[in-house]
Model the fold of this input.
Amino acid sequence: MDATIVLLPGDGIGPEIVSQARRVLDVVAQRFGHTFEMPEHAIGGNAIDAFGDPLPEATLTACRNSQAVLLGAVGGPQWDDPNAKTRPEVGLLRIRKELGLFANLRPTKTWDELLDASPLKREIIEGTDILFVRELTGGIYFGESGRRPHPSGEEAWNTMIYSTGEIERVVRVAAQAARKRRGKLTMVDKANVLESSRLWRQVSERLIKTEFPDLAYNVVLVDAMAMHLISKPREFDVVVTENLFGDILTDEASMLPGSLGLLPSASIGSSGPGLFEPIHGSAPDIAGKNVANPLATILAVAMLLRYSMSMNAEADAIEDVVSRVLKSGLRTKDIACSGASVSTTQMGDAVVKTLLG
Ligand code: NAD
Done:
């Protein structure tokens, strides 16, 4: 297969980890007989510096014309000025909106080899394997907001707004994923307080009854879910929720496997290219030191091949190699606990060598 995969290295450790992912894609192409064009484009802080825009038109056009997009990370203290005209994160929000990426998929799985790297007890987290599906282009982050004078100074407001269609399409993505996994779907809301949650509950229940009656479906309030995640995470298979709740719950869940450096994510729409990235940020504290863990980005490549190109064998091969490399004892600094560690490029070397067989 011939495919164009746009690489957006971004800021901080982004270029270091994306270059390891490129090597992995080269090996996949070689081993499975594909041709991948992999043009690089600017996004985030470096794009502001070079073009005055965190998402230049050339980047957006290239992404639109591709099969899939792989992103490193954006942001850093040099672009944090609150009075600046624009910010790196604006590029990220815009690309999601422009490509219609309404569903964010975050697999959260513990690795047996790394159970002791988690701040939680081994007996609680062992065997955890959850797929979060977070609504990504609606809700309070995109609703009307504003400020107005108030006797005490000012008041400010944000609005959480969802339509039937927005809820249906993301719940459908989650339900389809649950069918391919263990057949369980949990919808998280705050229906005891919020009107938008009551619509989520109504629409979701109707959709599951009519289109997915075979699934084991339940609903959990978001405050209870925050507790269940750290007391009985094994009980969950696929979890679907709206944007704000998903943002918070997925970060909480990222602590279960113990390292940000191992968690990939995918953002997909109903058609067109998906966007694949590690869940961590640009880690400015370690940028340029060749110590960042490239595995989350490499696992994002596996998701990219699986979800955007239906290359399941290629994705399985990458995930299997990552598991074998971890089993062999190789660790970057973030997951080494107090033991010896390897560099970003050494970890990339090990993955590439194992993948080549
Ligand atoms: P971060 O995820 O960048 O870093 C948090 C901590 O985890 C740091 O100590 C960092 O060194 C470590 N870390 C992160 N990724 C690692 C890796 N692959 N290997 C080893 N260690 C790793 O979060 P932050 O420090 O809150 O944010 C830094 C910048 O990243 C900010 O500008 C923020 O806005 C941005 N950010 C971007 C994204 C994105 O591009 N999707 C996501 C989150 C944060």
